[in-house]
Amino acid sequence: MTAGAGKTGARTILARAMVVALMALGPMAGGAQAQVPELQGSRAEPARGAVTNLPLPRYVSLKGNEGNARRGPSLSHRIDWVFRHAGMPLRVVAEFGHWRRVEDRDGAGGWVHYALLSGVRTALVTTDMLELRTRPNPDADIVARAEAGAILRLNECNPGWCRVSGGGQRGWVPKTAIWGVDADEIRD
User: Which keywords describe this protein according to UniProt (predicted)?
Assistant: First the structure.
């Protein structure tokens, strides 16, 4: 082994130690594969996850009734938050191996194992007594009302409205009254 090779090996070990230290610092210190969309550049195309190659950020939902959000992407990191509502919409903002950095409407969250997440899209009602309408029009007939905090299944969306369903009812709601879909997102 030459002196130069020893220095390179030491640099590699130091770089790996820095990645581990960054992951231990907290939720936004992501590590080598974790990505924060704001740091990906200013291109028009969305950032892509290093693991899944899916867009970041993106929305998912909680599969079961409970999901632990950890300080870092492993079981050895402490639990900072527990999500307790099946179907709760969450936004994935980073990836690392089998772990996804998620946040809720209030920005609370952490690293969650991917097995606890579902690609089924849901939305959280942010307006109390939200009116579900027959058409995407503020003058359309009201078919139901949803309380703030209700979780609804997200169906199609146009530029200003989304069709949602829940509790045996379905209807259209303004995007501004729900969380779990981007303002410019279109869904068929």
Answer: Signal
What CA–CA distance (Å, rounded) separates 188 from 183?
Answer: 15
pTM of the model: 0.76
The count of residues in the chain is 188
CA 92: distance to chain centroid? 3
- Sketch the domain layout of the chain as residue ranges: 1-120, 123-179
Domain 123-179: what homologous superfamily?
SH3 Domains (2.30.30.40)
- Bridge partners of 130, per DSSP, are 146
Q: Which two tokens stand for residue 22?
A: 């960054």
pLDDT in tens, 51-87: 999 999 999 999 999 999 999 999 999 999 999 999 9
Determine the CATH number of domain 1-120: 2.30.30.40
User: For residue 131, what pLDDT is reported?
Assistant: 98
Contact 119, 100 (CB under 8 A): no
- 123-179 and 1-120 share a CATH fold: yes
3-class SS of residue 88: coil
Burial string for 90-100 (b: 16+ CB within 10 Å, else e) reads bbbbbbbeebb
For 104-128, what is each residue's pLDDT tens digit? 999 999 999 999 999 999 999 999 9
Main-chain dihedrals φ then ψ at residue 131, nearest 5 degrees = -90, 125
